[in-house]
Amino acid sequence: MTTVAGRTIIVTGASAGLGAHFARLYAAAGARVVLAARRVDRVEALAASIEGEGGEALPVAMDVGDADSVAAAFDAAEARFGLVDTIVANAGVSMVGRSTDLSADAIRQVLDTNIAGVYLTVREGARRLIASGSRESGAGRVIIIGSITSHMTAVGDAAYAASKAAVAHLGRNFAREWVRQGINVNVIQPGYIQSELAGDLYQTEAGAQKIAAFHRRRLQPVTSLDPFMLLFASDASACVTGAVIDIDDGQSL
After folding, report:
1. Which H/E stretch holds residue 144?
2. Predicted confidence pLDDT, tens digits, the chain (253 residues)
3. Which residues pair with 35 in a beta bridge?
4. 225 closest CA partner among 186, 172, 176, 185
5. In this structure, which long-range contacts are made by residues 57-63, counting pairs with CB atoms below 8 Å and at least 24 apart in sequence?
6. Which positions are annotated as active-site residues?
7. Three-class SS of residue 186?
8. Cα distances (angstroms) measured from residue 151 to each of 89, 93, 144
9. Rounded distance, CA 65 to CA 124, Å?
10. Is the pTM of this model over 0.90?
11. Under 8 Å CB-to-CB from 158, ≥6 apart: which residues?
């Protein structure tokens, strides 16, 4: 029941890291995948790789903070694959620095991408789903990628953590608003994973100390998210909406 074969899934922030991994996961499982990012050359290369392995993928340019860019990406997806029935709002940025040092521009970039970008992406997809009859089909799926930092405290990531706390609540509000519209909205909050967003942090002494402080003394593998990414995009999650779930290898305990 967790099959996603035949679904059309848009993944934002698909040019690297978690987004690229999710795109490959869904394509391998039989979904038509729309790869959305600002770095078009990267999603073009990823799409070529996926199609070379027998999958279906479409690279599209998208700036999640620009409503017109978001709409254009959905237009391109529909022109190639038809209605996008699953939206994975993964795009995000992090600006590390003490709250007293972070610039106003850096704060705005985090909030614009991580909150407004999620809002605009999910809203655009939901509008089209509702117009297409999702109330009757019950086929709409939205997965928002949050973070366990939404309920933790640390030095250096206040803006990022606040943005992830905001999208966790935003996801529940979207779920409530569309509960009768056939659209399920769920939030997955990963723990610390080696990704492009983290850069070389975990290769530094500070990063090694951070890993040593985790209960299991290890980073979380990206594949640990796969079962839930498939579940929340499939018919098996028909009765799951408004969930905010930590998948973090016990890091936040």
Report:
1. strand 140-145
2. 789 999 999 999 999 999 999 999 999 999 999 999 999 999 999 999 999 999 999 999 999 999 999 999 999 999 999 999 999 999 999 998 999 999 999 999 999 999 999 999 999 999 999 999 999 999 999 999 999 999 999 888 999 999 999 999 999 999 999 999 999 999 999 999 877 666 677 777 877 888 888 999 989 999 999 999 999 999 999 999 999 999 999 999 9
3. 11, 59
4. 186
5. 57/23, 57/27, 57/32, 57/33, 58/32, 58/33, 58/34, 59/35, 60/34, 60/35, 60/36, 61/36, 61/37, 62/12, 62/36, 62/37, 62/38, 62/121, 63/38
6. 160
7. strand
8. 20, 18, 16
9. 12
10. yes
11. 99, 102
- Where exactly are the structural domains of the chain? 8-247
The CA distances from residue 30 to 7, 26, 216, in Å, are: 8, 6, 34
CATH of domain 8-247: 3.40.50.720
Place of tokens 């996603």: 4
In angstroms, the CA 23 to CA 15 distance is: 9
* Parallel, antiparallel or unpaired: strands 86-89 and 244-247: unpaired
DSSP element (H, E) containing 56: strand 56-61
Distance CA 198, CA 147 (A): 13
Residue 181 in tokens: 């519209």
Q: Which residues contact 43 (CB under 8 A, 6 or more apart)?
A: 14, 15, 35, 36, 37, 59, 60
